[in-house]
Design a protein that fits this description.
The protein has 226 residues and is of the alpha/beta class. The chain contains six helices and twelve strands. It catalyses: (R)-4'-phosphopantothenate + L-cysteine + CTP = N-[(R)-4-phosphopantothenoyl]-L-cysteine + CMP + diphosphate + H(+); N-[(R)-4-phosphopantothenoyl]-L-cysteine + H(+) = (R)-4'-phosphopantetheine + CO2.
């Protein structure tokens, strides 16, 4: 372990990782959330630390222990809180890996008290769009090497390539979700897409996938910024 810390491909590199879901509060007892256990992002944080990186993990609400070797963990709840933490940390990071399942919308207002049922009348929630964290980091003057994730239920590669371009990313890790794949599972399959092409990592343990992802990120990062 000590040797890998000293000689790893990301030795001395500052890696920021966001992981887990975000919870958008409706009232003091309810929220809108995403289906994310945080396992993939935490596995990526563990792999980055094992590769020698100085890891800062910004985490939504999850039931996971901080991986060994992670230097710092900042816990957040909402997309706005994740945005604030990531934008602050990104300025001092060399690589940002956005593995979080960020809520796209939040309730326009948070009720002060627990909302009550209304005799069978339907309830309509008004939602406001959350800021795009990755796009904001990409717009920084000196933006870090950017890696996004795209979880899609169909047309995975097409949507992922579109996000790579639209969000000005260096790499995107795309995966098929739904039908028992992806969320809350121990294993996963990923297609890594960057300007050099694409590489499909077959379905395996999230820990192994994370190690392969970190290896490709390290290679591309050093190729781009020698
Ligand atoms: N992401 C982000 N900020 C948001 C929403 C998403 O930084 N407000 C990041 C995710 O962490 C992920 C990438 O953007 O790395 C793609 O997320 P995804 O939900 O697939 O893309 P969206 O742009 O939100 O598009 P849509 O949900 O409509 O497919
Ligand atoms: Ca989204």
């Amino acid at each position: 372990l000590a040797a890998s810390f000293n000689d790893g491909p990301l030795r001395g590199v500052r890696v920021l990782i966001s992981a887990g879901p975000t919870f958008e509060d409706i009232d003091p007892v309810r929220y809108l959330g995403n289906r994310s256990s945080g396992r993939m992002g935490y596995a990526v944080a563990a792999a980055a630390a094992a590769a020698g990186a100085e890891v800062c993990l910004v985490s939504g609400p999850v039931c996971l222990d901080t991986p060994a070797g992670v230097a710092r963990r900042i816990d957040v709840r909402s997309a706005q809180q994740m945005y604030d933490a990531v934008l602050t940390e990104a300025r001092a990071s060399d690589i940002y890996i956005a593995a979080a399942a960020v809520g796209d919308y939040r309730p326009k207002g948070v009720a002060e008290h627990k909302m009550k049922k209304r005799d069978g009348a339907p309830l309509t929630l008004e939602l406001a769009e959350n800021p795009d964290i990755l796009a904001a980091v990409a717009a920084l003057d000196a933006s870090p090497f950017l890696v996004g994730f795209a979880a899609e239920t169909r047309d995975v590669e097409t949507y992922a390539r579109d996000k790579l371009e639209r969000k000005k990313l260096d790499m995107i890790a795309a995966n098929q979700v739904g039908g028992g794949l992806g969320f809350e599972a121990e294993d996963n399959a990923l297609t890594l897409i960057d300007r050099q092409g694409s590489e499909t990592l077959p379905r395996c343990d999230k820990r192994e996938l994370a190690q392969a992802l970190i290896a490709r990120i390290a290679a591309q990062f050093h190729a781009q910024r020698p």
